[in-house]
Amino acid sequence: MTGPAVGAGALGRVVRRPVGGRRAAEPCELCGEPLRDTHAHLLEERKDLVLCACRACALLFEHGTNGPGRFLLVPDRRLRLTGPPPSELGVPVGLAFFVRRSDGTVVAHYPSPVGATRWDVDTDAWERLAGHYAELASMRPAVEAFLVAVVRGLDERWVVPIDDCHRLVALVRQEWTGMSGGPQLWDRIAAFFAELDR
Q1: For the chain, what is the mean pLDDT?
Q2: 158's torsion region: left (phi>0), alpha (psi -120 to 50) or beta?
Q3: What is the pTM of this model?
Q4: What is the pLDDT of residues 172-192, one digit of tens each?
Q5: Listed residues 13, 46, 73: the one ending a domain
Q6: How confident is the model at residue 16 (pLDDT cuts 50, 70, 90)?
Q7: What is the DSSP letter of 131?
Q8: What is the helix (H) or strand (E) element at residue 20, kind and residue range?
Q9: Alpha carbon distance 112, 90 (integer Å)
Q10: In angstroms, how far is the first alpha carbon of the chain from the final one?
Q11: What Pfam families does the database record attribute to this sequence (predicted)?
């Protein structure tokens, strides 16, 4: 199964989007108003789509009062972690992110040349890990993720907004070459994490 939906026309825009937002040449995807350089994002949970939103539209969903299955405001916190070890979650690859759903289940996503491959994480394993790391326990369902990159000299563990993960998936899809992704891709991934750190 493939992961976060990014339309073909949107792929380049998502990859070029900086961490703090993107250039304001495009409209709010709910009302059409012009966007500022930094703006909010909303997650349409049922379709796993991230939408750019103006301040007025974002305020409508700020307190989660829009009912189940609608739009969720994506937070902007980024926390760098010194742990936990992703091996405890049975991660077979070095680049993945984990999202807790509204029903309490956790899904792992692996960025790949065809999108993000998903699989369900053992709930007990997640709960054990979250019991030792308050940052994981505090993750907001659907809109925050535990992002790990323990590959090719990287040793990164973060709690990030889900839109950062969508950007990473789009980056991998666009830049992947050959069997292992190619050196340019891994340079771009390293730059992605350096940008998170700023």
Answers
A1: 85
A2: beta
A3: 0.81
A4: 999 999 998 999 999 999 999
A5: 73
A6: low
A7: H
A8: none
A9: 18
A10: 33
A11: DUF5947
Higher-scoring residue by pLDDT: 3, 101:
101
Counting the structural domains of the chain, the total is 2
Whether 86 and 181 share a structural domain = yes
In a domain, 4, yes or no: no
Angle, vertex CA 171, rays to CA 1 and CA 49, nearest 5: 55
Distance (Å, whole) CA 96 – CA 109: 5
Highest mean pLDDT among 47-51, 64-68, 83-87, 170-174: 170-174
Return the closest-CA partner of residue 99 out of 149, 33, 165: 165
Q: Which domain holds residue 55?
A: 21-73
The answer to whether position 16 is within a domain reads no
Coil, helix or strand at residue 35: coil
pLDDT for position 63:
63
Residue 84 located in a structural domain = yes
Structure tokens at 85: 């070890």
Residue 13 counted as domain residue: no
Residue 158 β-bridge partners? 80, 147
- Go through the chain and tell me how many residues it has: 198
Residue 92's nearest CA partner among 148, 145, 135 is 148
Is the pLDDT confidence value at 4 over 50? no
